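Collaborator request, handled under Task 6.
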Amino acid sequence: MPPCTPEIYVPDETSPRGVAVEDCFAFSAVAKTPALGRDPVAAKLSPQRKASQIYTVAEVASHNTKGDAWIIYKNQVLDVSKWISSHPGGEQTILRFAGMDATDELRAFHGDWVLETKLPHFVIGTVNDAPEATELVRDFRALGEHFEKLGYFRVSRWFYVKKVSAVFGILFCALALLNMESYRARMASAVLFGVFWQQFAFVGHDCGHMSARTHARDNIDVPKLGALVTFFNGISVAWWNATHNVHHAVPNTIDCDPDIAHLPVFALHKNMFGSLFNKYHGRVMEFNWPARYIFVPYQHFWYYPIMCLARFNLYIQSVLFLLNSNDGHGGRTRLDVAAFTGFIAWWTYLVSTIPSGERVPFLMLSHAVAGLLNVQITLSHFSRPIFDSPTKEDSGPKYGGDFYTRNVKSSLDVACPTYLDWFHGGLQFQTLHHLYPRLGREHLRKTEPLIASLCKKHSLPYSRKSFIECNKEVYQTLKDAALHSQSWSPLIYESMCAQG
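Structure tokens returned to the collaborator:
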């Protein structure tokens, strides 16, 4: 099979969008990329200060703490120790790669203009023994460069005008139904409120990833826009930003990814039964009595009922986040607190206008419908492989492999017809979204075959299944872990971990 460099295979404009994965290699080459042996990210930063020091990869690896954090970008060494707590995406994202090469992680989350103007201030030297990028990494980097040239990291202004108009149209319909003197109308209003929250969350998600830009140098004001989303949606975007960036950087890493740290309710892998220390939360996730006897052994039965109520937990997480200013995540402001307080105020008032006998059904139905979003999120990762985080003694792949490998392995796409794209909000293309999180939502469907093609070339396990099949996989994953938990014993676990 020919290498993806120097050519990237892209579909003819006349090719059908529903082309089979096997046919992706027949696409015509219409865009040239750097020749084989040239890396698309090989160009160096221009340091803002003298940086003549030369280091080894091993030397950089020793600077891996919050107070002494170095990272490698394009074979250049960056000292981010004094700035790490000010990182808009949260310090936890950087800490996971302190002492490591984070070239692909930095490029995935930031536009070129940010990398070219901000990072040079932190350059202190170069590394002289960095390993050469593999062909797989070069191919995915080249594909990203191709998407950049095609303008896929930007979207049409009218795309979001239509999306936001539709979302607020749902809200206005919900309010109109709520004012009718009919039980059925108010319950229909509850359903529409749930759909509104789901759909508005998709818009907020896009903006948080900077994938809603209409121009290459657009600087989306995430804090202010996030406050607007928080006011209407009720989930702190500051909290979401702190957790979600870490999830994207180290997906399905057993002790780092907050999106799979759900004890005492869920445990996706038997290694979670040993009261594991979670690096994101900075505490031990106890496999305690409720986990051992109430939730985990029956988690496959609990899954959907808990998803219906999960939104209430998100309120709690938002409150805890906004009240705790010393957890190292940053990002919270008075505006975030005001926005969340505003949501509580208008939602409480709205519910108070409903006849008292209908308030609980209204509240539960609206939140159960909104719980569809929690199902969609967990479908993407719960059934995928779980990775270990690197240790000082471990010289193996970091977090399950290079950035592209780990994100392909840990993601599951949902196959759906085009007319259901609105329902999934881009989450159905989870693999593509994790590989290139800044890619505009309106471009996801037409670029998905290229990802499948490249994964096939490099024998990466790209997965794409129907919505029903994805649900079955998650159910089976939870069931398998539940059965393991029923035979788990702390004495057996301690004997397995014993040394000597």
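The cover message to the collaborator said: "The longest helix spans residues 183-208. DSSP finds 20 helices and eleven strands in the chain. Please let us know whether this matches your experimental observations."
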